[in-house]
Amino acid sequence: MERSASKGPPKEKASLARQKPYLCSMSTRVKNQAEILSKLGIAQLNPMQLAAQQVLASSKELVLLSPTGTGKTLGFLLPLVLALDTACDEIQLVIIVPSRELAIQIEQVMREMGTGFKVNAVYGGRSGSKDRIEIKHRPAVLIGTPGRVADHLRREAFDTTFIQTVVLDEFDKSLEIGFESEMRDILHLLPQVRTKILTSATQGVTIPSFVGLKSPQVLDFLEDKISQLHIKKVPSPTKDKLDTLVQLLSHLGAQNGIIFCNFKDSIERVSDYLNEHNLSHGIFSGGMEQIDRERALIKFRNGTYPLLLATDLAARGIDVPELNFIIHYHLPLRAEEFIHRNGRTARMNSQGTAYVLQYEKEALPDFVGQLPVETLKRAPLPAPSPWSTLFVSGGRKDKISKGDVAGLFFKQGMLAKEDLGIIELKTDCAFVGVKTAALEQLLPKVTNQKLKEKKVRVTLV
User: Fold this and answer.
1) Domain map of the chain by residue range?
2) pLDDT in tens, the chain (461 residues)
């Protein structure tokens, strides 16, 4: 039976698509789950993820509240992906996120799950034509920011008949930054939706009525990690606190962390001061081009940058490694952002410390409370990071894998295993962490070499 472009898929197939995901046997699901967790390098799910899985096995409405960094993405994505219909060639699951970074992060998680289902992320900051080219071959899972997804739906860019599940990830953040009308439109334009999942890392959030939840199951894990976080204050004799910041970084030594500022101008001033002291760092703020923000996060994840200087854009919804600390160079104006910033460290079961830089004549807001004082020890400046980042001009669309990139560096490049760091594979390129000391001998051996059928350039980022 042929499909009419105007009328959508035939009713028989739509009915099958609505039923088939829920006919999957438990034994098959468990087997697939074990394979996925193995690919992700995860031994077992944490209590929050297990609870989410149990709720989604019997309920169509879930509100999942859990701190940043506790694995919410896998908590909802794993059971939803295991329920996808392998026979359906249209979009089945839509995930709405407040930021480009979170869209890219979730897309990467799903690719690493190795399910065989196609996934695409769409977001502002890149051409709509690129989106249309990518989703012409339909993904099973579409991830995107509210504005971009709403735009594609209004244009009727794809069939919505098979979209039965919508996730509003960090929904309160999307509302906070002004996406309510787009979110309303998305839900209105997806009439087939049966399962709705909302996630947040904020306590006391209000569920918007337009989502249309009837009897949601609420999982609240927001109190689970308070004991893992230490918050301390560091007094500063001067109002600009720059000298105190450098003393604190020297005191902390070679650890990784985020320094939060409230304003882009302050970030520039602090960045200049850190550069004067040869303290390597990346910058992450809303005023930057998307490609620059992505590269800053890549270099932070692979250790090229031990520090990230950021606005509250980095307080949630970005993929960063385990952090030893965060520093409030400026305190946020609201308690919620204070909590989200602190949530970047002491994630899962790890320890972490949030430091508040306080000018001695400055009164701390009530939401901070009484804090113990951290006494700074005199120490030399931290040594520069031993890592650098290389750009490889070939990626997933060229059928290149992480193993191919590693093989190039080990075989042709004669690189020692301990000198190769994190490899991040993108659609059309790859980024590789490499020990700086090995670069001079490595680069001439690996650039202009073939990976699969493509000759790639390898350059220093």
Assistant:
1) 11-220, 226-359, 387-460
2) 333 333 344 434 443 334 444 334 444 444 489 999 998 999 999 999 999 999 999 999 999 999 877 889 999 999 999 999 999 999 999 999 999 999 999 999 999 999 999 999 999 888 888 899 999 999 999 999 999 999 999 999 999 999 999 999 999 999 999 999 999 999 999 999 999 999 998 888 899 999 999 999 999 988 754 457 899 999 999 999 999 999 999 999 999 999 999 998 899 999 999 999 999 999 999 888 889 999 999 999 999 999 999 999 888 778 887 789 999 999 999 998 998 899 888 776 568 999 999 998 899 999 998 999 999 999 999 999 999 999 999 998 999 999 999 999 999 999 999 999 999 999 899 999 999 999 999 999 999 999 998 999 999 99
Q: Is 319 exposed, middle or buried (0-12, 13-18, 19+ CB in 10 A)?
A: middle
> What's the rounded Cα separation, in Å, for the pair 368 and 234?
13
Nearest Cα residue to 64 out of 228, 227, 179, 213:
213
Kindly report the number of other CB atoms within 10 A of residue 381's CB atom: 13
DSSP state of 163: -
Name the pTM for this structure: 0.76
Beta carbons of 75 and 52 less than 8 angstroms apart = yes
Amino acid present at 236: S
CATH of 11-220, one of 3.40.50.300, 3.40.640.10, 1.10.3980.10, 3.40.190.10: 3.40.50.300
d(CA 428, CA 451): 13
Residue among 321, 291, 328, 285 at smallest CA distance from 306: 321
For residues 356 and 244, the answer to whether their CB atoms sit within 8 Å is no
